[in-house]
């Protein structure tokens, strides 16, 4: 029996431009040839492609590293395609074993709903949510039932499942693997079937799960999705991936002044990596800027541009301008325009007790450590005497580069 001819669509300049946007900063595109044809078909038929990204709301806090995939979705959305942020409210009740050496505890429904709201609120900052197709995988996963789950499980073998690195390593280490953990990649793959996705995005640690969607789509007679993996963003130290546990992160709900200052603290080398993965500026504009820096322009100019772009995205252009001025004031030893006012009693009061009571140090011992390190100033003068006692009056007290308080002591 003859197979029907597969239509080959022309690869136009617009398709090549779309491919360049797709490939910006990516780790891997699987398979590239199929994606090019999907882009060509979309261009020829004026039919947008369906771009899926799964969000398992396992934690309420989002940092800049999490937005790398969001940015890629926005780039593809700007090309005219349909982006589908998928909230994994069903799969989160199972618990994703990716990269884990032990069973991950599932969350309660209340935790999932609270975390999902946080993720969704932050998606609005990057994506045009009004044009996105926001979905929840409980829509099709709950109705699947026991019979449907067993039928789905029959479409993948245990041997293939054990090829996954974390399962393979845990098995040979004698660490327990619960049967329900096999269901997670199956259910994530089934999401692609339910959504008829053309492309699924994810981090490099999700590659197995993303390929599962491609496999299951073929099992269900669908055209398989392509896979796009994004790298993990290095944190402020430029070495480890951005992580709250490593304290090298920028939280996207941090105040504008802190966010701006943290971006300026990264190395000149790391700055260009962040421009590729986090900035919305075009690659041609970034290349021109890089050439100017190589030609002698101060690298700080480019870093300030990046800091203002990121701060504006999560706050506002006005907040970014104010943060820049605040940074200039601090770098000159100046005092920010707005600092908290604190009223204390007990004059004369020891400097250690004052720092603790004003909320500038968590304890007296930490206050002493800060003084020893030269990190405490009173009215711009460095404090070196841990036995200093301040009489009644008003003082501007500074700890480190960013903590200030106007203390009125009586």
How is the topology of this model organized?
Layout: H1 13-23, E1 28-30, H2 32-45, E2 50-55, H3 67-78, E3 82-87, H4 109-126, E4 135-136, H5 138-153, H6 158-161, H7 165-172, H8 179-195, E5 199-203, H9 207-219, E6 226-230, H10 256-264, H11 268-278, H12 283-294, H13 299-314, H14 317-331, E7 341-344, E8 349-350, H15 351-357, H16 364-372, E9 376-378, E10 381-382, E11 389-390, E12 393-399, E13 403-409
Parallel strand pairs: 2-3, 2-5, 3-4, 5-6, 7-13
Antiparallel strand pairs: 1-6, 8-11, 9-10, 9-12, 12-13
User: What is the correct CATH architecture of the largest domain?
Assistant: 3-Layer(aba) Sandwich
**What CATH first level of the largest domain would be assigned?**
Alpha Beta
Distance between the termini: 95 Å
> What number of domains?
3
Report the order of strands and helices. Answer: HEHEHEHEHHHHEHEHHHHHEEHHEEEEE
Principal-axis shape: globular
Major sheet summary line: 6 strands, mixed
Motif ('KMSKS' region): 241-245
Subunit structure: Homodimer.
Family: Belongs to the class-I aminoacyl-tRNA synthetase family. TyrS type 2 subfamily.
Catalytic activity: tRNA(Tyr) + L-tyrosine + ATP = L-tyrosyl-tRNA(Tyr) + AMP + diphosphate + H(+)
């Amino acid at each position: 029996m003859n197979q029907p001819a597969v239509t080959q669509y022309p690869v136009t300049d617009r398709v090549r431009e779309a491919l360049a946007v797709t490939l910006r900063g990516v780790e891997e595109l699987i398979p590239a040839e199929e994606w090019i044809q999907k882009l060509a078909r979309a261009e020829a038929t004026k039919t947008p492609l369906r771009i899926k990204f799964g969000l398992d709301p396992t934690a309420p806090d989002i940092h800049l590293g999490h937005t790398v995939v969001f940015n890629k979705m926005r780039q593809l959305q700007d090309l005219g395609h349909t982006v589908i942020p998928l909230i994994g409210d069903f799969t989160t009740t199972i618990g994703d074993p990716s990269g884990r050496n032990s069973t991950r505890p599932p969350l309660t429904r209340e935790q999932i709903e609270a975390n999902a709201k946080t993720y969704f609120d932050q998606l609005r900052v990057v994506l045009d949510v009004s044009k996105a197709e926001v979905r929840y995988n409980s829509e099709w996963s709950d109705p699947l039932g026991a019979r449907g789950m067993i039928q789905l499980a029959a479409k993948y073998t245990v041997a293939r499942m054990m090829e996954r690195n974390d399962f393979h390593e845990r098995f040979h280490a004698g660490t327990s693997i619960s049967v329900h953990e096999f269901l997670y990649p199956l259910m994530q793959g089934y999401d692609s079937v339910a959504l008829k996705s053309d492309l699924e995005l994810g981090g490099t640690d999700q590659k197995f799960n993303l390929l599962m969607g491609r496999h299951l789509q073929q099992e269900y007679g669908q055209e398989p999705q392509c896979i796009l993996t994004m790298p993990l963003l290095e944190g402020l130290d430029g070495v480890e991936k951005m992580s709250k546990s490593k304290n090298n992160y920028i939280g996207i709900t941090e105040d504008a002044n802190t966010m701006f200052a943290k971006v300026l603290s990264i190395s000149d080398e790391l700055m260009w990596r962040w421009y590729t993965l986090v900035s919305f500026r075009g690659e041609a504009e970034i290349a021109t800027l890089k050439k100017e820096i190589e030609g002698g322009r101060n690298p700080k100019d480019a870093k300030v541009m990046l800091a203002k772009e990121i701060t504006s995205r999560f706050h506002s252009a006005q907040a970014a301008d104010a943060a820049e001025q605040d940074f200039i004031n601090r770098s000159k030893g100046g005092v920010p325009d707005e600092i908290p006012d604190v009223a204390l009693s007990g004059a004369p009061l020891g400097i250690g007790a004052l720092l603790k009571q004003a909320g500038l140090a968590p304890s007296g011992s930490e206050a002493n450590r800060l003084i020893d390190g030269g990190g405490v100033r009173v009215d711009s003068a460095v404090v070196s005497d841990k036995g200093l006692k301040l009489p009644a009056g008003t003082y501007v007290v500074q700890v480190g580069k960013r903590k200030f308080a106007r203390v009125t002591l009586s």
